[in-house]
């Protein structure tokens, strides 16, 4: 009896690849464990390739399995995107744009873009998701997002990147801190302070840039806390648990008992860029990029 790969095989494989545990994957899929094992075995026979290494202690992916996991994530993401677009088209709407972003983009670029889209193409739906740089990168590659707003210098082949906002950095200190904007002479004044930063995993470029700002002032900052949310960072600063260095635009939209001291004379800048996939087939994307970049794209 000959078999063909079906969509169910993809879903079964992906569940096992993510859980790396057949029982947990079977429970997630609401099927029996023996039934799931048979489906995976059938898939391996069809492909004539071993996808999992199984022993009594653990389940792991083979090299072929790792490759297939990435491809299936892309296929299923694109299929879900296509289903959403079909539904929107059937309702007489233009389509949907899925946007990923770092928090600071919501203070500057994104509100302006959403207003332009609403004015020019009111029939376009938009969805927003705040994610780390790497999460956005992976989602754009796999068609989970159409565009992402990130802080990075380079992207893998197949992606495009363009700067869209060039921001200064500011030191964030408690409102009652002895150093004020008029008394600020340089970053060396904060040498003995604890620093509260965005997590390195959230934005490696930001983290390295902050390190370089302090190192240019002759010291390595003592990092006491890390977070992925500006609100958390500002709350920690407000409670005298340290100082922070953030893009200046983040002072908008928060009502916290902190003050910002803009670092106008340093060479480092917080550059926000947009990324998108070169072969993205979403027809809405070209309209978005024209509004965002004009003729630069």
From TrEMBL:
InterPro entries: LysR_HTH_N, LysR_subst-bd, WH-like_DNA-bd_sf, WH_DNA-bd_sf. GO terms for molecular function: DNA binding; DNA-binding transcription factor activity. GO terms for cellular component: protein-DNA complex. The keyword Transcription regulation applies. Keywords: DNA-binding, Transcription, Transcription regulation. Residues 5-62 form the HTH lysR-type domain. Belongs to the LysR transcriptional regulatory family. This is Transcriptional regulator, LysR family. It comes from Cellulophaga lytica (strain ATCC 23178 / DSM 7489 / JCM 8516 / NBRC 14961 / NCIMB 1423 / VKM B-1433 / Cy l20).
